[in-house]
Amino acid sequence: MSTKIWTRVCAVLAAVGLTISLAACGTDSDKNGADSKEIKLGIIPGWTDGVSMAHLWKVVLEDEGYDVEIEELGDAPLTYTNLSRGSVDVYPSAWPDVTHASLMEKYPKLEDLGTYYDNAKLTFAVPDYSDLQSIEDMVGKGGDYNGKIVGIEPGAGLTKITKESVMPEYGLDDEYKLVTSSTATMLAELKRAIDAKRDIVVTLWRPFYANSKFPVRDLEDPKGALGESEGLHEVARPGFTDDFAEVAEMMGKAKLTDEQYGSLEDLVVNQYGEGKEEDAVKQWLKDNPDWLDTIK
Q1: Which of 55, 92, 49 has the alpha carbon at shortest distance from 237?
Q2: What is the percent of the chain where pLDDT is above 90?
Q3: Host H or E run for residue 259
């Protein structure tokens, strides 16, 4: 049946009040649009800022009557691709200012809902017993570090900036190789090195619980190759605001201080852990009773 004929049939059914038959006239946009209560949040495994924020929004939105699903995606490029296709609705902790800027340029129709934290930064970090003070100090010392910088996921924005900006800017390419795998693997190697009092350089970022869990400090970046501090945003698929205006407004109002962010991530990742994230969020909301008032 042609679209025009089907439209006329629906109009006739509406005119005579046949509401049961009208259910068949719905479109995909009706099912997934403004009347829908289903929201899918995308996260990258091991990226604890996204994990913490996704579970925070899951608890908050489900209390508002939404059906929220969290889907794990492999890396940042895959996350942005899924957003652009509408496979997920929101990436609740994106780095669009610097780290993910190229991905935002690639998918210009994505919706930036707002900045919830404004002091994020990329870093190179070493154990606090290290002699290194600056990234410049790494030059000529590749042998002390087995010629490697321990990184995270290959598709991460931090990985891209390390390869394309930091290493060439400081002349590290001839001495060091950036070893990528996953955030979990990087942290495991960092722990082994610290336990053995062995030298190591890792790529890190702030805010991230590892900065307080491990005795590490940032290396100075006098050339500014890692970029300036940036904001963490909620980024949504095209059309999300039209479909979920109330949620988009809430996310746009959300703000976290350093103290609030640190306590949230510590509860989710360390104190409660995997499988108990929602319990951790509920505890955080009890500890921060006024926060909900700021987004409603």
Answers
A1: 92
A2: 76
A3: helix 258-265
Whether 116 and 128 share a structural domain: no
**What are 253-276's pLDDT values in tens digits?**
999 998 899 899 989 998 999 999
Q: How many domains does the chain have?
A: 2
Tell which residue, 107, 99, 105, 47, has the closest CA to residue 72: 47
Q: Is the pTM of this model over 0.90?
A: no
Given a contact cutoff of 8 angstroms between Cβ atoms, the answer to whether 9 and 3 are in contact is no
For residue 264, what are the CA distances in angstroms to 209, 260, 261, 274, 287?
A: 10, 6, 5, 14, 10
Mean pLDDT of the region 239-254: 98
More confident position, 39 or 18: 39
Q: Which residues contact 263 (CB under 8 A, 6 or more apart)?
A: 284, 287, 288
Secondary structure letter of residue 225 according to DSSP: T
Q: Write the single-letter amino acid at 231.
A: G
Task: Please tell me whether residues 43 and 82 are part of one structural domain.
Answer: yes
Q: Are residues 237 and 281 in the same domain?
A: yes
Q: What are phi and psi of 241, to 5 degrees?
A: -60, -40
Last residue of a domain, one of 167, 196, 218: 218
H helical segments located in 163-236: 167-170, 183-195, 210-213
**Where in the sequence is the domain holding 243, given as residue range(s)?**
32-120+230-295
Residues 131 and 251 in one domain: no
Q: Which amino acid is at 87?
A: S
